[in-house]
Specification:
Low-confidence stretches: none
Helix content: 40-55%
Number of strands: 7
CATH architecture of the largest domain: Orthogonal Bundle
Radius of gyration: 19 Å
CATH class of the largest domain: Mainly Alpha
Largest sheet: 5 strands, antiparallel
Strand content: 5-15%
Structural class: alpha+beta
CATH superfamily of the largest domain: Hypothetical protein, domain 2
Distance between the termini: 43 Å
Strand order of the largest sheet: 1-5-4-3-2
């Protein structure tokens, strides 16, 4: 088990990051640290002080642990500069940012996010998390950390071994066919996730929507949380309420997306996370 320390952090708070709805495989420990399974291994992250974190875990590559963690946590991104742009002439955004000041959009594994957000359709976070664990335990590689067993999310080829019937046994419900078809398409090379990552926002969204079970909202979640597209603005029922209550904006997803482009520019997805977290945590969303 390796331990690394990362210093000089700002605009960073563990609870804000791991509890704003963007990830499904992190849980809070009794000592206020968070443990999660990532493409880099099992990580446990604890704040040592306001600007320092200590990361322990079972790393897949110990030599690049600091670089991997920094990239995963998006530490290179200047959130202070982004905040200044977003709060300009926007009192709603200022309140949201003051509340969720420590949010950072994680750079999660694109393949895992494709499946995770297909699973998210008409679902809730506890059930999504449980289903992802079921898939990982059934088809992913096992790792140990602190004498406990964890499982990496399976690769496309590993998951492609599962039949629709196999997946149905993991409580996927109607999503079993979508997950099966996505795994087959990516494992066979019919769909190239790495190529999609490197496309423009518009082209990447178009390609993702070719996969069954991926519509506009799911595509935007994948693009925002794993493909480094901060302009992606996922719109669901909750965000429609946020836009209505805070900005008086209502209508179609297309109309709300255009509002986000005009209002928040290239950082629409980051703005969305601040607003959603603020409204949900202050009980302003029912």
């Amino acid at each position: 088990m390796k331990e690394v320390e990362i210093n000089n952090l700002s605009d960073f708070e563990l609870a804000h990051i791991f509890e704003c709805g963007q990830c499904f495989r992190w849980h809070k420990e009794d000592d206020e640290s968070y443990t999660g399974v990532t493409k880099y291994g099992v990580l446990n992250i604890k704040k040592k002080n306001k600007s320092t974190i200590v990361v322990k875990g079972t790393f897949l590559n110990e030599d690049t642990a600091v670089e991997d963690i920094s990239d995963y946590l998006n530490l290179q991104c200047d959130y202070s500069a982004i905040k200044k742009l977003l709060i300009k002439n926007d009192e709603n955004m200022k309140k949201a940012i003051d509340y969720g000041y420590g949010i950072r959009i994680l750079n999660q594994d694109p393949w895992e996010m494709v499946i995770s957000y297909i699973i998210s359709a008409a679902n809730n976070i506890p059930r999504i998390s449980k289903t992802i664990e079921n898939i990982s335990k059934s088809y992913g590689k096992k790792l140990k950390y602190n004498d406990a067993e964890y499982y990496l999310f399976p690769t496309p080829k590993e998951l492609a071994r599962a039949t629709v019937e196999d997946l149905r046994m993991l409580n996927l419900g109607f999503r079993d066919k979508y997950v099966h078809n996505a795994a087959q398409a990516v494992a066979s090379g019919e769909v190239d996730i790495d190529a999609i990552v490197n496309m423009s926002y518009a082209d990447a969204k178009k390609e993702l929507k070719k996969l069954p079970g991926i519509g506009d909202k799911v595509a935007d979640c994948i693009l925002l949380f794993s493909m480094r597209k901060p302009e992606a603005f996922p719109i669901d029922t909750w965000i429609k309420k946020v836009m209505s209550e805070l900005y008086g904006e209502e209508g179609s997803a297309k109309k709300l997306n255009q509002f986000a482009v005009d209002k928040f520019g290239e950082f629409g997805g980051i703005a969305q996370q601040y607003l959603f977290y603020y409204m949900r945590e202050t009980n302003n969303l029912e």
